[in-house]
Design a protein that fits this description.
With 100 residues, this protein is mainly α. The protein has one domain. It has helices at 3-20, 35-47, 51-54, 57-69. Helix 1 (3-20) crosses helix 2 (35-47) and helix 2 crosses helix 4 (57-69). The radius of gyration is 16 Å and the shape is elongated.
Length: 100
């Protein structure tokens, strides 16, 4: 994902976290809920640890927007879109070995 797209996601996460922070329910073991961490953890869990390289920008932004309406729902409740870019869309070139 290009830096401009990552910056756009980062900015929107910050904006949404400011809104949902006061709405988050208490969580056992946490003295205070961190809305930013809540959103980033959700993105990592739903799109995978390598989401920066593979995830579709529209899908990640859709999840961030989803948090506005569902701040206390389980991450698995986000039904999508969860799209991953193909290697060709990511600009990856595959080298073939000597056999092909």
């Amino acid at each position: 994902m290009q830096q401009v797209s990552l910056d756009r996601i980062r900015q929107r996460v910050h904006e949404v976290a400011q809104v949902i922070g006061p709405l988050l329910h208490p969580h056992p073991g946490l003295s205070r809920r961190n809305a930013h961490a809540h959103i980033w953890l959700g993105i990592n869990q739903r799109f995978g640890q390598d989401w920066r390289e593979r995830a579709d920008l529209a899908g990640v932004l859709a999840m961030v927007e989803w948090f506005l309406h569902h701040p206390n729902h389980d991450y698995e409740a986000f039904s999508g879109p969860i799209r991953h870019r193909t290697p060709e869309q990511r600009g990856l070139l595959f080298e073939t070995g000597p056999d092909g």
